[in-house]
Specification:
This protein is an alpha/beta fold. It has a single domain, classed as Vaccinia Virus protein VP39 (Rossmann fold, 3-Layer(aba) Sandwich), CATH 3.40.50. It is 40% helix and 18% strand. It is built from nine helices and seven strands, in the order αααβαβαβαβαβαβαβ. Strands 3-2-1-4-5-7-6 form a seven-stranded mixed beta sheet, with helices on both faces. β1, α4 and β2 form a beta-alpha-beta unit. The longest helix is centred in the first third of the chain and has 17 residues. It is globular, with a radius of gyration of 20 Å. The termini are far apart. The N terminus is likely disordered.
Length: 240
């Protein structure tokens, strides 16, 4: 009897550690850890607590986070942080949350926050699939998905950010009239994203237009040099 109990306990523990495969979070990024230099490490350690939002936690009161009721944009995958740092000073009446799993881009934005007094900018170091749960419905004005990991192989497509379950969450947290933006240099990605967004029935037809404030990144220039021109699309959250 004791052997049976031990076996059952062992199975239960393994199941908990393994998790329910149907409910397991399907990650949309490839972890790439790089150490920060000494100066950037000091900036990161000194500023992260004051200007960061935790990926886990209760529903966010964005008015309290930014001490104003301005519109809030979410940049998913801020990379090196160049866009966030350039956007903040030119749009003082818009709040921006930039999220990435990689520390270097977060540290660069923190440096920009200090250098340019970007009181309208916050960072999140973590997974957006976790962070989205912290946003109340209809609380964001824009969501930016710029050059996400393409996951090119068919068996990897379930890891793409622009997939049905995630787009459904985007629709939940965007205000009516809010905007979902995508930029990618992978044709298969933008074509299939159009199909995914259209299938949800909560967004307008896709509009092909690049915002004038979206700066060209080093990754974008690399794609152009390799013969992959970028495509910018946006959709408007509609009230059906």
């Amino acid at each position: 009897m004791n052997h049976v109990k031990l076996r059952l306990i062992g199975v239960t523990v393994c199941a908990v550690l393994r998790g329910d495969s149907e409910n397991r979070l399907v990650r949309t990024f490839r972890p790439r850890r790089r150490k920060l230099g000494p100066e950037l490490s000091k900036i990161y350690d000194r500023l992260k607590d004051g200007w960061s939002i935790a990926e886990h936690g209760p529903t966010l009161d964005l008015g309290e986070v930014f001490a104003n009721n301005n519109q809030v944009c979410l940049e998913i995958g801020c990379g090196r942080g160049d866009l966030a740092v350039s956007y903040g000073p030119l749009h003082p009446d818009t709040n921006l949350i930039a999220i990435d799993i990689h520390t270097r881009g977060i540290a660069n934005i923190l440096q920009g926050i200090e250098n340019d007094a970007l009181v309208n900018t916050r960072v999140v170091e973590g997974d957006v699939l976790v962070l989205l749960k912290r946003f109340a419905g209809a609380s964001l004005s824009e969501i930016w998905v710029f050059f996400p990991d393409p996951w090119p192989k068919p068996r990897e497509h379930r890891r793409r950010l622009m997939r049905p379950d995630v787009v459904q969450e985007f629709a939940r947290v965007l205000k009516i009239g809010g905007v979902l933006r995508l930029a990618t240099d992978i044709e298969d990605y933008w074509r299939k994203s159009i199909t995914v967004v259209d299938s949800g029935g909560t967004f307008s037809e896709p509009i092909f237009e690049r915002p004038d404030w979206r700066i060209e990144t080093v990754f974008e220039r690399r794609g152009i040099a390799e013969g992959r021109p970028p495509v910018d699309i946006y959709w408007v959250r509609e009230n059906f």
